[in-house]
Amino acid sequence: MGGVLNDISLRLPFYVAGGLSLVNAAIASAFLIGPIVRRMGERRALLLGISLGALSSLVIAAAYTGALFYLSIPIASLGGLTTPSLMAIASRR
Q: Least packed by Cβ within 10 Å: which of 2, 43, 77, 85?
């Protein structure tokens, strides 16, 4: 009945990565996103967020070790600049 996917030792890195992603996203949202958007402006923050999101996707695609995968987590968290900036721009129009 077991199987490879039922072994917790194989699934644990994915759980750790998911937890780290949530923690990083919460920290970025709480402390970094607002000041960055205020300092850069909504348009520049939007472009930076899109760029960081694309960069994190490239790092994930090229990751051949867990360490490289974990490197993408803070980059992806700062990619969270996209949504608040886009909503601010859209609400003005």
A: 2
Residue 80 has a CB neighbour count (10 Å cut-off) of: 20
Residues 32, 37, 41: CA angle, nearest 5 degrees = 160
Give the span between the Cα atoms of 67 and 85, in whole angstroms. Answer: 30
CB 75, CB 56: distance < 8 Å: yes
Q: Is the pLDDT of residue 17 over 80?
A: no
CB 76 within 8 A of CB 21: yes
When pLDDT is averaged across residues 71-93 and rounded to a whole number, the result is 87
- The pair of structure tokens assigned to 67 is 């360490």
Residue 19 has pLDDT above 90, yes or no: no
**Neighbour tally for 92: CB within 10 Å:** 7
Mean pLDDT over the full length of the chain = 82
Give the Cα separation of 93 and 89 in Å (integer). Answer: 7
